[in-house]
Specification:
By secondary structure, this protein is α/β, with parallel strands linked by helices. The chain has 20 helices and ten strands. It has helices spanning 11-24, 37-44, 63-71, 88-95, 109-139, 174-182, 215-234, 252-266, 295-306, 310-326, 331-346, 356-365, 376-385, 396-409, 417-423, 428-439, 443-461, 467-473, 479-490, 494-503, and strands at residues 2-7, 28-34, 51-55, 79-83, 101-104, 155-164, 190-195, 201-209, 238-242, 273-276. The longest helix is centred in the N-terminal third of the chain and has 31 residues, at 109-139. The chain is elongated, with a radius of gyration of 30 Å.
Length: 504
């Protein structure tokens, strides 16, 4: 419910306006009245309305003076001006001070209804923007004021974290997912969707009435729908972790971290799963023939392919094929699993002129079942898929060159140097040493340098982008740290850099 203050020096008119407001909208209630501008300012010290209806001509302090005084303290409070025909020019002057609308006296029920409908839509939009901003800040682990929880009073917040088996999950935009999932919710439930750390990760916050009937069942049903939508768009398997409900915004970041860890440990390639937080894994899962390629292992394989570490990749894929065959998968299932793996691991890094599915089919046709146990299939896949390059990718210079290309293409992401190093069979200190030798700075510093170069590119390409927006796009959770880092490399702040460009 939105609170309304009416400022009018005629009590009968106050009564009429209160009646029309409360009769025509369940969203608004008149909670305070004042007989002139000075009286309103006194009452505003204790009362905080969401909307103010004020007459123009009043003794002591008129409506225009009241608007000027309030605008100095609150630039967003919406005003509705009440005026007679003879005061119309005066009302137009008030509109210059960002009054929201005006009503001509005598006020008609139809006019009140229309103004309230517009006000309601505007205030609801503001509230939604505020909620989204708070939830996004909470997801990033930012410190929030205690009163922020008031917007979610009597609400239960639950997270769904989806992980696509391939980066093509980016094809499913958060807005599209949100729109489609919203049609499946019950009254009193709101969904908000964001992309996560990577394009293959989607975050959904389910905002519902606390202690609502069927709360857990509905969240699981929404998780299944999310899974189906992402599978249809990405053409790959999707794991969804379902978080326990939280009552405080400050607990959201912890829940997200728990779900990410849950997916890292239990997400499986080759099968779609729903994983409940705090759920004890079913003992039967341990013997499942598809619990053999975890998300962690998949990331390691991707690094090997992206950095052209053929020997490491061949050894790891040989081990996987051995495990799949020992599980006695039917040949069609085995073939499909190999295809899904190659799509997920090397999308965008295999040779451009090959069709992965055809390569697998031809390789399978040319070997006998017994030969699959040997390296024959791996050799055929290697020849067909890997891009040859004049620089030896196993040489130190080759490692740095390929990793450099990969980091530049993904400069918007946050990388862990240890994970990058382990993915290509090196230690983090040695990889950092190689970068200092061939790029003039340690790896961790080079990662920061690439982000600032990307930030400069974004500023040049879109002068309207704010520094905060650019920082968020490059995964900086602290805008002040982003500004300091920019100044370290460029010698000026992002805004100063923009001004330099404008002067050229």
């Amino acid at each position: 419910m939105y609170r309304v203050m009416v400022v009018e020096d005629e009590p009968p008119l106050i009564r009429d306006i209160r009646y029309e407001i409360e009769r025509n909208s369940s969203l608004f209630r008149v909670t305070a009245t004042a007989i002139n501008g000075a009286d309103a300012l006194r009452k505003l010290e204790e009362e905080t309305p969401d909307v103010l209806f004020t007459d123009i001509r009043m003794p002591v302090m008129d409506g225009l003076e009241l608007i000027k005084a309030i605008r100095q303290k609150d630039p967003e409070l919406p005003f509705v001006i009440l005026s007679g025909y003879r005061d119309f020019d005066y009302a137009k002057e008030a509109l210059k001070y960002q009054a929201y609308d005006y009503l001509l006296k005598p006020v008609s029920p139809d006019d009140v209804r229309k103004v309230l409908a517009k006000l309601g839509a505007m205030l609801e939009g503001r509230k939604e923007q505020r909620k989204r901003a708070l939830l996004l800040s909470a997801l990033h682990g930012e410190q929030l004021r205690d009163e922020s929880d008031g917007l979610f009073a009597d609400r239960s917040l639950g997270l769904l974290l989806a992980l696509c088996g391939a980066a093509s999950g980016a094809e499913a935009s958060p807005a599209d997912l949100e729109s489609e999932l919203a049609t499946l919710t019950t009254p009193g439930t709101t969904l908000r969707v964001w992309s996560g750390k990577t394009s293959s990760e989607k975050i959904v916050i389910v905002d519902e009435d606390r202690d609502g009937d069927g709360e857990i069942a509905e969240r699981e049903q929404l998780a299944k729908s999310l899974q189906r939508l992402l599978e249809a768009r990405s053409g790959t398997t999707v794991n969804v972790a379902i978080g326990a409900p939280v009552a405080r915004l400050g607990d959201i970041a912890g829940s997200l971290g728990s779900l990410r860890d849950l997916l890292r440990r239990r997400a499986e390639h080759g099968v779609s799963k729903l994983i409940l937080e705090n759920e004890t894994p079913d003992a039967s899962e341990a013997g499942s023939p598809v619990t053999i390629l975890t998300n962690e292992r998949l990331i390691s394989l991707r690094s090997m392919v992206h950095l052209h570490q053929k020997s490491l990749f061949k050894a790891e894929l040989s081990s996987l094929i051995g495990e799949w065959l020992s599980a006695q998968l039917p040949v069609p299932d085995f073939t499909a699993l190999v295809k899904r793996t190659l799509h997920a691991v090397g999308k965008g890094y295999w040779r451009r002129d090959v069709d992965i599915d055809s390569v697998v089919d031809e390789s399978m046709e040319s070997v006998t079942p017994n030969e699959i146990w040997s390296d024959s299939l791996i050799e055929r896949l290697e020849v067909a898929l890997f891009v040859e390059n004049s620089i030896s990718r196993d040489s130190p210079e080759g490692v740095v060159s390929k990793l450099d290309d990969y980091l530049k293409a993904n400069s918007h992401r946050n990388f862990d140097p240890k994970e990058l190093a382990s993915g290509i069979g090196l230690t983090a200190p040695y990889l950092s040493k190689l970068f200092k030798q061939y790029r003039g700075m340690p790896l961790i510093e080079y990662l920061a340098y690439l982000k600032i170069e990307k930030a400069k590119q974004l500023i040049r390409s879109d002068p309207e982008l704010l520094a905060k927006e650019i920082g968020e796009m490059l995964r900086f959770t602290d805008p002040f740290y982003f500004s300091r880092l920019f100044k370290k490399f460029e010698g000026c702040s992002p805004s100063e850099y923009r001004k330099r460009l404008e002067k050229r």
